[in-house]
C-alpha cells in the first residue's frame, strides 16, 4: 500500500448499507479501506451469502482492475467507511515507485488464497464432527519452551509458541508484528515484515521474509531468505540496524 494514501487518490465515504458496487458492474479501479468495514457477498440460489468482511487496511476490487473484467461479487458498507480509490494509472505508478507495495499486496492475496483453500477443505469434509475427530487423532505437538528477544536497550519482546513476526508497524494496513521494532530505530532499516521466528517440534528457527531490503544476521552471518535456520539460546539476531539477543527459558 502507498506510504501516504491520502495523496494517492481522493477518499470516498459510504454510509452503512450503501452499495459500493454490484456483481456484473464494470470496474477499472480498486479500493483500500481507510476506516470502517466492507462486506463482500454473492447471491447464491436466491440467498445472500457473505464471502468476507474486510476492515481497515484491506483492499478489494483488485481483480477487475488487474483483469479488466466485470465485478464478480457485490460490495456493501457494513458500517460507515472511508475508501481510497485507486485507478489503473495510480496503481501502475505505485508498483513502479515502490516494489514493497507489490510484495505486501501479494502477501495479502496469499492469505486470502489460503483461507479459500481452508474453506474448500471444510466443505469437502462435510461435517464439523469429522474435523474434530481428525484433529483428536493427531498426536500432540511438543510444547516449545518460552522464549524472548531482548534489544540492546533492555526492552523485551515475547516469542510465541508457533510463529512470531519481526518488523515495523504498518500505518496503512494497520498490521503490527508481534516484535514491533518501530521504536528501536528511526532509520527504517527494518522492513514492515522483516523476519520471523518459527517453532517446529519444540525447536526455534529464524527465517528472513521475502522482499526484505536489508539483511538479517544470525551471530553476524547473513541467513538465506525464506530458509528456516535453527536459533539457540544466547544467539544474536541483527534485523536491519537493530541487534537483539535470543533467550530460551531453561536453557
How does this model look, in words?
This protein is of the alpha+beta class and 251 residues long. It has two domains: 5-97, Jelly Rolls (Sandwich); 147-248, Tumour Suppressor Smad4, CATH 2.60.200. The chain is 21% helix and 36% strand. It has helices at residues 62-67, 88-97, 99-125, 128-137, and strands at residues 11-14, 19-21, 29-35, 38-44, 47-54, 59-60, 74-77, 81-87, 147-151, 156-159, 163-167, 179-180, 193-200, 203-208, 216-218, 221-222, 229-230, 236-239, 242-248. The strands form four sheets. The protein has a six-stranded antiparallel sheet, with no helix packed on it. A five-stranded mixed sheet has the order 12-11-13-14-17, with no helix packed on it. Strands 1-8-3-6 form a four-stranded antiparallel sheet. A hairpin with a 2-residue loop joins strand 4 and strand 5. Helix 2 crosses helix 3 (99-125). The two termini are 41 Å apart. Residues 1-9 have low confidence and may be disordered.
Amino acid at each position: 500500500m502507498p506510504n501516504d494514501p491520502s495523496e494517492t487518490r481522493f477518499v470516498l465515504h459510504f454510509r452503512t448499507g450503501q452499495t459500493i458496487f454490484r456483481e456484473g458492474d464494470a470496474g477499472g479501479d480498486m479500493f483500500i479501506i481507510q476506516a470502517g468495514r466492507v462486506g463482500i457477498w454473492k447471491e447464491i440460489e436466491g440467498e445472500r451469502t457473505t464471502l468476507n468482511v474486510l476492515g481497515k487496511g484491506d483492499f478489494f476490487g483488485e481483480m477487475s482492475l488487474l483483469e479488466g473484467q466485470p465485478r464478480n461479487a457485490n460490495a456493501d458498507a457494513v458500517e460507515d467507511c472511508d475508501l481510497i480509490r485507486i485507478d489503473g494509472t495510480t496503481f501502475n505508478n505505485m508498483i513502479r515507485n515502490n516494489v514493497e507495495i507489490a510484495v505486501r499486496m501479494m502477501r495479502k492475496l496469499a492469505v486470502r488464497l489460503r483461507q479459500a483453500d481452508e474453506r474448500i477443505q471444510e466443505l469437502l469434509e462435510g461435517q464439523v464432527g469429522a474435523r474434530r475427530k481428525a484433529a483428536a487423532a493427531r498426536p500432540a505437538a511438543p510444547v516449545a519452551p518460552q522464549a524472548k528477544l531482548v534489544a540492546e536497550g533492555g526492552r523485551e519482546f515475547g516469542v510465541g509458541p508457533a510463529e512470531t513476526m519481526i518488523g515495523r508497524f504498518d500505518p496503512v494496513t494497520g498490521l503490527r508484528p508481534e516484535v514491533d521494532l518501530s521504536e528501536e530505530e528511526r532509520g527504517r532499516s527494518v522492513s514492515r515484515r522483516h523476519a520471523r521466528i518459527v517453532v517446529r517440534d519444540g525447536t526455534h528457527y529464524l527465517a528472513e521474509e521475502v522482499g526484505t531490503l536489508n539483511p538479517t544476521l544470525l551471530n553476524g552471518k547473513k541467513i538465506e531468505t525464506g530458509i528456516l535456520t535453527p536459533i539457540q539460546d544466547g544467539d544474536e539476531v541483527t534485523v536491519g540496524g537493530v541487534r537483539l539477543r535470543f533467550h530460551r527459558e531453561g536453557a
